[in-house]
Amino acid sequence: MATANVICIKWGTLFGPEYVNRLYSGARRNLSGDVRFFCMTEDRAGLHPGIEVLDLPEEPYLAEMDAALAIANRQGAMRKVSLFRPGLIPDLEGALLGFDLDVVITGPLDELLHHAPGKVAMRADWVEARRGRRTGHGSVFRFDPALHGWLYDTLAADPAGQVGRARGSEQRYTSTLAQERGAFAYLPPDQVVSFKHGCLRLPPANYLAAPRLPGNARVVCFHGRPKMSEAVEGYHGSLLRHSLPCPWLRDHWIDRTREDLGEEWG
After folding, report:
1. Tens digit of pLDDT for each residue in 188-220?
2. Which of 78, 82, 140, 263 could bridge 170 with an S-S bond, Cβ 3.0-4.6 Å?
3. Three-state secondary structure call for residue 203
């Protein structure tokens, strides 16, 4: 059976190493066969030794990209494009399944890894879809570096132009470019779900019962607020964003990681 390849990126201090370790555990528990898990970061402290660390590069286009992002008020928002650099992992075989750090893996991932081979695959963005836009959501993405190096090359060749065109959004840049090239597919919406839109109950039920976990959910995305560290204990941001403590989140994100990797890594 082919090795399953998984990748993420961590920079700055918003997310600690436990977010990477829990994502690593979730991936290796929910993929068939051997798993290679990569994390691109400038700070490898606290990462589990099973994680293959890629140094966060100082891209040659970084200064021009950052200047354009500052105008769009989206500082740092497109660093993830470094994951698409051709030859980033010289001995890699096959596609990469990528995750943002604000997700929790709750079910088998093989279908997501192998969905629409040869395409860049992302879930439809919840908010953009309601506005009639085709933008993909960047929390979960699948691509093949051997086929999709143009995701990196296009930005590197014209960072200011591409940032302006995408209005500072990496997910808009990635999905729009792939769609234009006829190389895009949506991930199944029942397998990649939003905590806010798919798990939180509407008032008053959210004050009476814990958030639900949809039956076929493989990944739950915590875009915006609350993040996992907030939702696991219960959260009150507004009437709509109120939630009771979430037992299934604690189970998949914390307890199973500690059972898998040990207390020090969970």
Report:
1. 999 999 999 999 999 999 999 999 999 999 999
2. 78
3. coil
